[in-house]
Amino acid sequence: MANKDFSEHSQERSPFQERLQSSRRIIKSFQAKADAKRSFAEKVADYMTTTFGSIRFLTVNVIWFVTWILINTNLIPGVKPFDPFPFGLLTTVVSLEAIILAIFVLISQNRESKINDLREEVGLQLDIITEQEITKLLEMVAKLMNKDGIDTESDELLKEMLSPTDTNRLEKSLEKQVNKESFPMPKLEI
């Protein structure tokens, strides 16, 4: 009987557990939602990036280039060279391939960057909410301690922790640090 009561109780979800599960679903669904919203060009770019980033593609390229070089150095009897050394046509083909591959990779990276930016923003918002909730819990604990006769007024660290975090001040401070590190001012000597 006790086991039945325990299992029934453990299957019930508290509001906190529901919110936690909901948050996990939201975070996991970013990639799925972003994938569903891809344009045709983004889908092609993702497919090409996945395909071109494989061992199979590397193998095909190596075989292609070795065959090209063997043919055009007259090492395969009966096949007339069509792009003699220094392989100008091969150089052009490889350059065009590199340009196209780079564009596909950049399209995919830009899309992934947008998804990561969204995840970071959600993470930041959750961190702010968490900080507010923890501050509220600290206030409640401090009130309970005071009610039980425990002095909290002399605890400077607790006072600091109970004051709300000024996110605007933090943001400005971080921006100053990033700007100083990213764009150091050169010293001009006259």
SSE ordering: HHHHHHH
Which stretches of 5+ consecutive residues score pLDDT under 50? 1-10
Strand content: under 5%
Average pLDDT metric: 82
Spatial separation of the terminal alpha carbons: 89 Å
- Chain oligomer state: single chain
- Number of helices in the DSSP assignment: 7
Task: Give me the secondary-structure topology.
Elements: H1 2-11, H2 15-36, H3 40-52, H4 55-72, H5 88-147, H6 156-162, H7 167-182
Structure description:
With 190 residues, the protein is mainly alpha-helical. Helix content is 77%, strand content 0%. The protein contains 7 helices and no strands. The protein has helices at residues 2-11, 15-36, 40-52, 55-72, 88-147, 156-162, 167-182. Helix 3 (40-52) packs across helix 5. The longest helix is centred in the middle third of the chain and has 60 residues, at 88-147. It is elongated, with a radius of gyration of 31 Å. The model is unreliable at 1-10 (pLDDT under 50).
Put the structure in a nutshell.
The chain has 190 residues and is an all-alpha fold. The protein is 77% helix and 0% strand. It is built from seven helices and no strands.
Question: Which properties best describe this structure?
Answer:
mainly alpha; 190 residues; 77% helix; elongated
